[in-house]
From TrEMBL:
Enzyme Commission number, as recorded: 3.6.1.55
Record's keyword terms, sorted: DNA damage, DNA repair, DNA replication, Hydrolase, Magnesium, Metal-binding, Mutator protein
UniProt source species: Rheinheimera baltica
Protein name, entry field: 8-oxo-dGTP diphosphatase
PANTHER family: 8-OXO-DGTP DIPHOSPHATASE, NUDIX HYDROLASE FAMILY PROTEIN
Cofactor(s) listed: Mg(2+)
EC category name: hydrolase
UniProt entry tagged with the keyword DNA damage: yes
């Protein structure tokens, strides 16, 4: 039987594009994770009963120790990896408290718009990178 999209479990992920001085904060996914060894926008899975902004705030506090004070919906993207399908719910984070650091030992870096073109992201991320570059060129 042909597998249709409705039969595939979709993993809902809250993703933060954290902005400061026209740069974006990235975290290195550990080699043991799905899409490991690539740079990501910090975030994680939305848990049952959570809104996306709640999941985003929780994940950014858990992963990089910041408290989100200002965010807005940016884009949504569904992407089918061979092993799973993800729905990335992407928010711009334009205000936060605290000094970001990788609480799980993961390296962090700030990247400028042009640097984003040279960094290896998970396969789903290309449209996100393009929209960020468009956004930064207008601001
Ligand atoms: N955080 C994040 N996840 C991404 C990006 N692009 C992308 O394809 N993903 C995928 C990879 C994973 O399959 C999924 C996110 O899962 P995750 O591993 O961050 O989830 P989590 O933080 O809840 O971690 P865990 O507790 O399951 O280990 O979304 C991205 O830019 N940021
Ligand atoms: Mg995560």
């Amino acid at each position: 039987m042909q597998q249709t999209n409705s039969m595939v479990k979709v993993v809902h992920v809250a993703v933060g594009v954290i902005l400061r001085d026209s740069q974006v904060l990235l975290a290195l996914r550990s080699s043991t994770q799905h899409q490991g060894g690539k740079w990501e926008f910090p975030g994680g899975k939305v848990e049952a009963g959570e809104t996306v902004p709640q999941a985003l705030s929780r994940e950014l506090y858990e992963e990089i120790a910041i408290t989100v004070t200002q965010s807005s919906a940016f884009m949504q993207l569904e992407y089918a990896y061979p092993e799973k399908t993800v729905l990335l719910d992407i928010y711009l984070v334009t205000g936060f408290d605290g000094q970001p650091h990788g609480r799980e030992g993961q390296p962090l870096r700030w990247a400028s718009s042009s640097e984003l073109s040279t960094i290896e992201f998970p396969d789903a991320n290309q449209p996100i990178v393009e929209r960020i570059q468009e956004y930064l060129s207008q601001s």
